[in-house]
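Lecture notes, continued. The same structure-token format from the folding unit now serves as the input rather than the output. Read the line below as a description of shape only.
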């Protein structure tokens, strides 16, 4: 399989490289693309050095599968051109998620939707993926009708610059030095604030609307109601989410736990006696998401409260995209493109 990574020098691009190696993704050639300023940079991969290239103007990446994470503006400008040259583009930006031509896919949830692509498959937002890893199995079992979600989103969701900002600010605070605010609007070290995305007239920001709209598309249910509050927290890696969910019929905690225990890509950490539940430190670097604090919602009998944590660079971004590629190959959906 001829594979390309667009945005290879970014945090998600680097995760793609690690995952393709770890999972022995069937690759005959691997080509790395990034911005013109990164062109010529050499990156180690499986005992060799690959040279980063600038994107060709004609859009021919000479690839069968393209993993794209270079930013929405680049994807909007070029992704269909890449696809027109025969590539299946698995796009990790927000550019095509709500486009009716592009399936929005979490393999454990709606993998077959990927088979209906027209050249581009969209990777959902990281918060949506992590939430639905727990909510989708419950939806299949009980019929999800409404959820309220509070997210605790790591700085790496803003890329390498977010990671650097938290580290530099934390060092400055501990050293008694002035804190420089560059990537984020507010100081992130020892602080938290509303997610740094535009707020609409309804008072919800872009990240919060993504959770609603993307969940409806993935679960194929326009009646689903989700109200989210998305918060950036001083954690390097892995998003966490507190979720209260309501269903078509009353559900108790044991029923929910039984369903979640069987869910693919999900592990339960729910040690009440030891007061140990999902944490970013535990989920960082892990393929699976973790769920715990599973309990009845005392404010709404028959509803369920739970807490989810997942690595948003891995399952929330690069891993989910690689799994889509693996799913297509397993189903023979890109077989005719193999060089």
């Amino acid at each position: 399989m001829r594979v390309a990574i667009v945005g290879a020098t970014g945090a998600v691009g680097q995760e793609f490289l690690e995952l393709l190696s770890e999972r022995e993704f069937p690759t005959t050639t691997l080509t790395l693309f990034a911005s013109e300023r990164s062109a010529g940079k050499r990156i180690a991969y499986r005992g060799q050095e690959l040279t980063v290239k600038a994107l060709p103007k004609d859009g021919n990446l000479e690839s069968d599968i393209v993993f794209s994470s270079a930013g929405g503006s680049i994807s909007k400008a070029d992704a269909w051109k890449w696809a027109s040259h025969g590539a299946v583009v698995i796009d990790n930006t927000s550019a095509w998620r709500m486009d009716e031509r592009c399936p929005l896919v979490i393999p454990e949830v709606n993998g077959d939707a990927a088979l209906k692509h027209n050249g581009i498959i969209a990777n959902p937002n990281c918060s949506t993926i992590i939430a639905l890893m727990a909510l989708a199995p419950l939806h299949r079992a009980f019929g999800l009708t409404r959820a309220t979600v509070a997210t605790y989103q790591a700085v790496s969701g803003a890329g390498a610059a977010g990671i650097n900002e938290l580290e530099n600010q934390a060092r400055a605070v501990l050293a008694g030095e002035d804190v420089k605010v560059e990537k984020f609007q507010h100081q992130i070290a020892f602080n938290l604030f509303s997610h740094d995305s535009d707020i609409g007239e309804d008072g919800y920001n872009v990240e919060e609307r993504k959770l609603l709209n993307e969940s409806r598309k993935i679960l194929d249910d326009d009646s689903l109601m989700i109200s989210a509050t998305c918060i950036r927290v001083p954690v390097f890696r892995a998003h966490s989410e507190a979720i209260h969910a309501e269903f078509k019929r009353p559900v108790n905690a044991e029923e929910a736990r039984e369903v979640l225990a069987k869910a693919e890509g999900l592990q339960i950490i729910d040690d009440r006696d030891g007061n140990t539940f999902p944490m970013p430190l535990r989920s960082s670097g892990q393929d699976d998401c973790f769920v715990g604090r599973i309990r009845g919602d005392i404010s709404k009998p028959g509803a369920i409260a739970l807490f989810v944590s997942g690595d948003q660079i891995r399952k929330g971004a690069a891993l989910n995209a690689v799994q889509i590629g693996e799913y297509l190959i397993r189903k023979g959906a890109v077989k005719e493109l193999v060089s």
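Point for the exam: The two ends are 7 Å apart (CA to CA).
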